[in-house]
Design goal:
Number of strands: 5
Number of helices: 7
Shape: globular
Strand order of the largest sheet: 2-1-3-4-5
Low-confidence stretches: none
Oligomer: single chain
Structural class: alpha/beta
Length: 188
C-alpha cells in the first residue's frame, strides 16, 4: 500500500467514525497567538504540548528553520493575515537545537538535486534568471542568531503594528525545554 492509499484509507475511517468532532474549533485562535516554528518532525506534538497550546489555541506556521527569509514572501504574508484577519495579538518565533538548517550548504544541496535528476541545464537557466542558490538555499550557524533575525524581520516589517509583541525562543527537541532569546514585551 502506498503512503497516499494508507492516508486515504485511514481518513475514510476517521470521517466515518466522526473522530473529527473532538477537533472542531473556531478558526480564530483562542490564545490569539501565532507560532512560527521549524518543520522538524520532532516538534509536531512536542512543541504545542511544551507550551500548553491545545488544538484551536494558536495559528502555527511551519517552515525549514523557522526562517523568515523574505520580508514579502509567503511566511510574512501569513503572519500579517494572522494579525489583521485572524485576531492574532502575539507572535512567537521558535527555532530548535540540532536543526537540519544549521550548516546547510547550497553547493551540497545542489549536488543532491543533480543526483535526484535535476539537470545542470535547468540549474544554469535558473542561475542566469537571477536565482542565487547560495542565498536561496543557505542555512545558519547559530539558531539563536537565526531566531533573532526572524524576530527582527517580523517586528520591523513596515506593515506590522508596533503593538504586536514578537518573541523569540529555542526549544530542545528532546525535552521540550524552551530558552528565551527575545522577550517581545521589552522595548528594544
Amino acid at each position: 500500500m502506498s503512503l497516499l492509499e494508507e492516508i486515504l484509507t485511514y481518513n475514510k475511517e476517521f470521517v466515518d467514525n466522526k473522530e473529527y468532532e473532538k477537533y472542531q474549533r473556531n478558526k480564530l485562535p483562542n490564545k490569539r497567538a501565532l507560532i512560527l516554528s521549524c518543520m522538524d518532525t520532532r516538534l509536531v506534538e512536542l512543541l504545542p504540548k511544551s507550551m500548553n497550546i491545545a488544538n484551536g489555541d494558536a495559528k502555527i506556521i511551519k517552515t525549514a528553520g523557522a526562517l523568515v527569509s523574505h520580508p514579502f514572501g509567503s511566511i510574512m504574508r501569513s503572519i500579517l493575515v494572522g494579525v489583521y484577519e485572524l485576531e492574532v495579538d502575539e507572535v512567537c518565533v521558535i527555532g530548535h537545537y540540532d536543526c537540519g538548517m544549521a550548516g546547510v550548504e547550497a553547493d551540497r544541496t545542489v549536488e543532491k538535486m543533480k543526483t535526484r535528476g535535476i539537470s545542470q541545464e535547468k540549474l544554469d537557466t535558473l542561475h542566469h534568471s537571477g536565482v542565487d542558490f547560495k542565498h536561496f538555499l543557505r542555512g545558519f550557524d547559530s539558531v539563536e542568531d537565526s531566531v533573532k533575525h526572524s524576530v527582527s524581520t517580523i517586528k520591523n516589517h513596515p506593515l506590522m503594528p508596533k503593538s504586536v509583541p514578537v518573541h523569540g525562543l529555542v526549544i530542545d527537541p528532546n525535552t521540550g525545554k524552551l530558552d528565551l532569546v527575545v522577550d517581545g514585551y521589552l522595548k528594544s
